[in-house]
Predict the structure.
Amino acid sequence: MAKKITIQPNNPHFFKFIKCDSLQGISIPRAFVKDYLVGEKCEGKKARLRTKKSKKSWIVSTKGCCFTDGWENFHNENDLHAGDFLLFEHKGGFTFDVLVFDDSMCEKAYPPLDGDAKDDEIVMEIDKPTKKRKYQNKKLAQIFSSSNLKNTAKVKNPLQLIVEMKPSHFKWRTFHVSAPFGRESGLVRIAKLAKDTNKSYMITIKDPNGKSWKLRLNYKPSANVACFGSGWPEFRKANKLKVGDVCTFMVVSMTSQKILLEMSVCKCKASF
């Protein structure tokens, strides 16, 4: 009887579904370990996981055939939820490229990385930098380095961020500020400082009805961007934002204690 011939892939894959109890860790299929990790000892290994969300790699420890220490960080930073489908591609050793699919059965879309924003994802306008603008930005940076600031720093020629709401803006409980706007406005610097000092920094956004909302300013080190955190889902819901709406965020004033933005919105007209 002829011997059965099998052809093994150069970069083998395995998949896992995220379950409600997957936060603590997931296992590598034993069949995958047997066939493709021959000679490798899983116990105590440091696996390197990479996704399209960031250029960074996540280092996750293994115990037996399970990803354990470091997995929770990978889980949270990649916004994984029960029902998500993960496809692991073995790149050699204990390095895996991970593709994430959500319940739409499509690959999960992540906010653009620093410098990777595309025209069809985010529509953004920033006033052209002038000598006066550069001076104001430099001055604001100097002001925020002082801890005894008391007076409001008025922004005479305010920066504006114009964003067309996409489906991806409704998948997360945070709103990622585009990298160029975050740098120009100083939001990235402030968010990073707050994170480094373990402090919570709240910004104020005034909606088109004049109501002020307190939103937490977070920092995402993996992408070096600032984002609106706690308070954003409520703000989004109250203002009845929909896909296609165009929102304009304008920096009105900045102090060491308060940042005030005003938001206006051009509602999308439904097409039939």
Q: What stands out?
A: Residues 113-157 have pLDDT under 50 and may be disordered.
